[in-house]
Amino acid sequence: MKSFEDSMKELREIVDKLQSGNLPLEESIKLFQEGTKLIAFSHKKLDEIQKKVKILVEDENGKLTTKDFDTED
């Protein structure tokens, strides 16, 4: 199974190749499609990790508790 880090490395390589501008159209399209799959995979992994992350919160009495991490706050 591919790791998040591996997919980000592969995505960087694809971006570099596409930015070079030296690829035939068909290969550019193929790389673009691979890149979009890697982005979807990376988003899924980040969502899974976000669901596991807890933050430490101190209440008004100084008691520490944990709550789910929410990027909307």
Features:
single chain; alpha+beta; two-stranded antiparallel sheet
Can you walk me through this structure?
By secondary structure, this protein is α+β, with helices and mostly antiparallel strands. It has one domain (4-68). It has 2 helices and 2 strands. Strands 1-2 form a two-stranded antiparallel sheet. Helix 1 (4-20) packs antiparallel against helix 2.
Mind telling me the C-alpha Rg? 19 Å
Count of the separate structural domains:
1
Q: Helix coverage percent of residues?
A: 55-70%
Distance between the termini: 32 Å
Structural class: alpha+beta
Please give the number of β-strands.
Answer: 2
Strand proportion, as a percent range, falls in: 5-15%
Helix tally? 2
Average pLDDT for all residues: 88
Going across the major beta sheet, what is the strand order?
A: 1-2
Largest sheet: 2 strands, antiparallel
Order of helices and strands: HHEE
Low-confidence stretches: none
Shape: rod-shaped
Task: Describe this structure in a few short sentences.
The chain has 73 residues and is α+β, with helices and mostly antiparallel strands.
Write the layout of secondary structure elements.
Blueprint: H1 4-20, H2 25-52, E1 54-58, E2 64-68
